């Protein structure tokens, strides 16, 4: 019987990488896909759209599927969900914080809710389909 302190759950570099991958990947992916496009597009009729195009958001989502799926497959489901959500929300908040209307906080909250729901669904499906793998 051991009377010492419990050993940390993250004893190895691969486990630590699994936990940190989504946290670091989310803001990097945001910067790569959305960070450079800051101005609304003016249409010929005078209306404005954007600043993001649909292909940019789709690219961000597809890019983030890689670390989310990889982390969930390694049985770090909470890290996949919470890490991606925290990273993407922080990136959105930072990117949009220069908005003088204050509505950036609403947008960041919507990013948080959407990311939480989507990553929870994807991670949950991966956890269910791979629960017998590796045993």
Task: List key phrases describing it.
two-stranded antiparallel sheet; mainly alpha; 4 helices; 2 strands; 3% strand; 135 residues
Shape: elongated
Strand order, sheet with most strands: 1-2
DSSP strand tally: 2
Report how far the terminal alpha carbons are from each other: 26 Å
Helix fraction, binned, reads: 55-70%
Mean pLDDT: 86
Q: Structural class given helices, strands, pairing?
A: mainly alpha
The count of domains is 1
- Number of alpha- plus pi-helical segments: 4
SSE pattern, N- to C-terminal: HEEHHH
Signal peptide: 1-31
Transmembrane segments: 55-73, 80-97, 103-128
Keywords: Membrane, Signal, Transmembrane, Transmembrane helix
In short:
The chain is mostly helical and 135 residues long. The protein has helices spanning 13-33, 54-73, 77-96, 104-129; strands at residues 41-42, 48-49. The chain has a two-stranded antiparallel ribbon.
Characterize the structure shown.
This protein is mainly α and 135 residues long. It contains 4 helices and 2 strands. The protein has one domain (19-34, 51-129). A two-stranded antiparallel ribbon has the order 1-2. A hairpin with a 5-residue loop joins strand 1 and strand 2. Helix 1 (13-33) runs antiparallel to helix 2 (54-73), helix 1 (13-33) runs parallel beside helix 3 (77-96) and helix 2 packs antiparallel against helix 3 (77-96). The longest helix is centred in the last third of the chain and has 26 residues, at 104-129. The two termini are 26 Å apart.
